[in-house]
Structure formats: structure tokens, C-alpha cells
Amino acid sequence: MPQPTSPAPQTELDEAAFIARAKARLEEIYGPRADEVLRRLQRLISHQRGAIPERSRPLWSERDQLLITYGDLLLDGERPPLQVLDEFLETRLAGTFSGVHVLPFFPWSSDDGFSVIHYREVNPSLGDWEDIRRLTRHGDLMVDLVINHVSRESLWFVDYLAGTQPGRDYFIEMDPNTDLSNVTRPRSSPLLVPVSTRRGTRYLWATFSEDQIDLNFANPDVLIEFIGIMLYYVEQGARIIRLDAIAYLWKKIGTSCIHLPETHAVVRLLRAVLDHLAPGTLLITETNVPHRENMSYFGLERLDDTTTSDAPTRPDEAHMIYQFTLPPLLVHTLTSGDATALEAWARSLPALPPGCTYFNFTASHDGIGVRALEGLLPPHEIDAMLDLMHRFGGYVSMKANADGKDTPYEVNITYFDALRGTRRGADPWQVERFLCSQHLMLALQGVPGIYFHCLTATLNDHEGVERSGQLRTINRRRWQKEALDELLDSRNTPTREVFMALRRRLKLRAQEPCFHPQVEQHIVDTPPTLFAVQRGPLADGRRLLAVYNVTDKRQPLPLPDLDEDGWYDLLADAPWDAQAPRELRPYRSLWLVQRPGAPT
Questions:
Q1: 111 is in an annotated binding site
Q2: Pick from 232, 97, 66, 255: nearest CA to 179
Q3: What does the DSSP assignment read for 154-215?
Q4: How confident is the model at residue 403 (pLDDT cuts 50, 70, 90)?
Q5: Are 10 and 55 in contact (CB under 8 A)?
Q6: What angle (nearest 5°) sits at the alpha carbon of residue 226, between those of residues 221 and 229?
Q7: In three state form, how does the secondary structure of 360-375 look?
Q8: In this structure, are strands 140-146 and 99-102 parallel, antiparallel, or unpaired?
């Protein structure tokens, strides 16, 4: 393949091309009303033109790696938490990340930000828009577009209760006797929420909770409003727009109400708007579903109506999708000491479409989703993992199914505590096992994201769960800066050991061209006790071999490639000694680079 210089930024759509593309999407969504909605969209864009910052940079490179954090995970007295975060990035993490994903920083009423009250305001307890814009000094800013639902404390909901515009028609009323048994549920709470209005009791669609009321995108007013909100975020400096819970956006009675064609059409329309008005801005979809469903959000569309079945396709939805399979599969691998399932899954991944990549992560503000394991692990293996997570202090959140039964949806636990031991129980290898999970993720094709609590080896916050009554709080601890500084500056603390190791590995990764998201990956045959992946080769023959021991025992390295000349050990910063004993210590890894013809 060619040398992986970063791809050019997305070519700006000219006016005619944009109108054709937008109209096609609007016809999929609204049928005969498409022309009317298109005129409104053009008016909105004409008002925004000129306010959007210009970008002329590649989509991504090997330097891209994001920190995921709430705006207030780090507290320091009365200082605005966003300023504390900015200082932490400037000092402790200087040169480590290419950008930061600040989870919803808007005024909110529940779910730690994902029940938004005001979309165009910064929660004053965090700071202000200037504090948000200041974070762009550290690189790209990812911002959530919480698009599926809104807080019942929002002004839109107040309008609905009063029967006034604009919110009067922003929500989905439903007869409680309607058969909704086909609807895919991510929660076990009731789908319809009773609400007292001036017209009497009405029942509203609420996919996630009674405080998160779904919005009615069958009403074009809602779509136009959210396109305006998205562009406002870009105007404030956001380069990556995260579409939260996007899979559930469109509702159609009698269907599963997930991944519907209209939902994909909305994503394609948002992409068209960004390509036209803010080329280089990236869309990422958050869809916690099995991998094959997740892949659909790249939006592979036929180039024209005359193409044959084997004709090339082009993506026109998300630039990135979350790699939801990776977090639970890594937990299974490292607690069982068997990489068979991980290797099979990684080997099955299709080639990425041009201009698309994965967002790789192990932990986030949510739990460790288990739906992505469907079809990858037998039920008894999933049950064994869930039982172990209980033993390590975690909880399991459930979802409702069409048959009336509840099944596991996600594990609520910190990723550090999820790797406290193996199926035999807790052991002394927690730090090494955890670092192995992070280092393995960093070598896979895609852009990596590191949750703040992975950097700090955070333990389960059971006290937080008791205070909030929410299971996800277990992985959302708020650090007092003084307490965290003490752990980071003290010797022999897991927090310091993990933080220093990850910071070093991230800086090393950012300098290696084989980690460019466009560089192909190939899974290397190994015994089940090892996992190995090759990145490359590049045009000059350079390739990288990453090898991991996924067990708590020393393992031999039966890899014939290591007999070749020219390997360099990136971690040791020295030539690879082919005569040294061929074994790998528990949970240790190798990053070896080979460039044919280079001096050894």
C-alpha cells in the first residue's frame, strides 16, 4: 500500500452538489415535503456561512489519540473545573493527546449530562464557552450532540405541557395500548411515560428514562433545530461531533425502531451539511450494538443507480464508529487467558472503507456493553464473565426484550477493577493485566480513546453509587486534584505506575507511522496464550509487529518472523536481540519495527 501520509481533508461540496445530496436525503426522510425542508435548510446555512472556522488539515494521522473525560472529573476548590482540566492537559499530559472529548457540558437534569436542558449553554458549574474554546489549544475537541432525547426540564418540554410552539410538536405521543413489542430496548424501564398536560394525561416515548424524552424527528422543525445546534458547536471550535444514541432516532410502529432507513438518512444529511459548510469536521456515531450492525453507520452507498453488485461503494455517513466489541472481548481474553475469540474477531474485521476508521476504546463513561459479544462467545462464556465482574465488585444493567424477559446490557465497573484477576480470583497481576489491555488497544487499526479513569487506575466508586442511586456512577468518580496529585507524585502507587506507563506508551505510539489509521492490520497466527498483530507494510517496507502475552505465566514466542534481520524494539529503544531467550513475561508486550535494508 502507499506510504500512509494523512488523507486530504474532505473536499468541500459545491452548492449544486450539496443541494442534490441534501434533497436526496430529505426525500428519504420526508417524502413530498423535501423541497420545503430543503429551502429552510438553505436559509439556515446561509446564516451560518462565514461563522464556521476553516480547516485544511488531514482527517487523521498516527498522532491522533483522544482523552475522554467529563468536564468535572477533576475538582480544585472553587476553580471552574474546565480550567482545572485545561491545566492538567497543559502540565501532566503535555504532548500526550491530540485532542479531548468533553462529555456533555451543558445544563442537565440527570444521567450526568445526557439529559440536556439547554443545548447552547455551558453548565455554569463547569465554566463557560471561553473555557471550552480554550481546550482547543490542546488539539481537536469532540462534542456530544445528544440528539435522540431531551430533559423534561427543557423549555421545549415546558412548551409541550402548555401546548405552545415550538415544543408543542417536538415529542412523540402514543396510545398506551399500542403494540410496541417489536421495539428494541436498551433499558428495562417502561418505554412510554405518562405526562400530565393541559389536555389531560398523555404518554410519551422515552427510550432511556422518564427524564429523557425522545424527540420527534418526523417533525422537520426538530431536524432543522439540531442542524443549527450542530453548526453552533462547530462554530465554538468542535472538530468532532459525536452522535449520541443515534441508532434509536426514528420511530415506526411495527418495527424494531433501531437502525431504520430514516435514521441513516438523517446521519447522511448531517454529513452532507458538514462536508459542505465545514469540511474536515468529523462525525462519529455511538451505537452500542453488535459489530455488523455498527458497521452500517459508515453508510456505504452505491455511486449511482447503474452500478453492478460488485461495484465500488463510497461511505457518506460517519467517519468513525465506536469499536464496542473490544472492551468486553478484552476482559474475556485477559481474565480467561485465552485469545482465541479475540483473534477470530480481529481476523474477521473487513477492510475499512476509504475515509473511515474505528474509534478504539476499552472504557467510557458508560458500562462495558455486552451486546457486542452476541455471536462471538457462547452464552456460558458470557455468563462466566458476568459472574466474575460481580465478584470484582461490579453490577450488571439489564435491557428489556420482546419476549418480556430482561437480559444483560452492560457491566458497570471500572476497567481497572474489571481486570483485578482471572477466573481463579484476584491476584497480584492487576496493574500488568490492565496495562496489557490498554497497550493492545493502542496497536489496533483506528483512533484510540482513553477514558480519564483508565489513566488514573480508578477503583470502583461504590459510595458514589449509593449517593446517586445510579449504577453507572461506579465509573464516574470525581477526583479532588490534591488527592490525585498526591497519588501521581508518590512512589509505588498503581495510579502513578499506570499513568506514567500509559503516558510513555501514548507518546511512543504517536511517533510511529505504522500506527496511522489507514495502515492495514494483519492478525498473526499464535497459540491462544498470545495475541499478535502486524501493521503494514508501508511503501518503504516498514512494518510493525505487536505481540501480547494474555496470561499470568511466561510464554514462549514461536514466531518465525523474529528470525529475520532488521527488527528494532521500540519499547526498549534498542535493536531486537534475536539470540535472547524467546519468551514473554506475564501480560507483557513487544512493539517491534522492521524496515528492510535499514542498519541493525
A1: yes
A2: 255
A3: SHHHHHHHHT-TTGGGSB-B--TTS--TTS--SSSS-SEEEEEETTEEEEEE-SSBTTEEEB
A4: confident
A5: no
A6: 130
A7: ECCCCCCCEECHHHCC
A8: parallel
For 284, list phi and psi in degrees, rounded to 5: -130, 135
C-alpha cell at 249: 432516532
243 is in an annotated binding site: yes
Q: For residue 13, which of 377, 269, 373 has the smallest C-alpha distance?
A: 269
Q: Look at the chain and count its residues.
A: 600
**Structure-block grid coordinates of residue 327:** 472492551
- Lookup: cell for 426: 484476584
Active-site residue list: 244
Write the pLDDT tens digit of every residue in 301-359: 533 333 333 433 568 999 999 999 999 999 999 999 999 999 999 999 998 989 999 99
Helix orientation angle between 430-443 and 494-509, rounded to the nearest 10 degrees: 20
Give the pLDDT of residue 204. 98
pLDDT of residue 301: 52
Distance between CA atoms of residues 198 and 162, nearest Å? 6
Q: Which domains does the chain have, with CATH numbers?
A: 66-145+219-513 (3.20.20.80), 520-594 (2.60.40.1180)
Q: Mean pLDDT, to the nearest integer, of 97-108? A: 98
Q: What is the pLDDT of residue 599?
A: 52
14 DSSP assignment: P
Please indicate if the annotation marks 149 as binding a ligand: yes
Is this structure's pTM higher than 0.85? yes
Give the C-alpha distances (Å, rounded to integers) separating 382 from 51, 331, 370, 372, 500.
50, 11, 8, 11, 33
Residue 403 labeled ligand binder: no
Annotation-wise, does 169 bind a ligand? no
Q: Is 244 assigned a ligand-binding role in the annotation?
A: yes
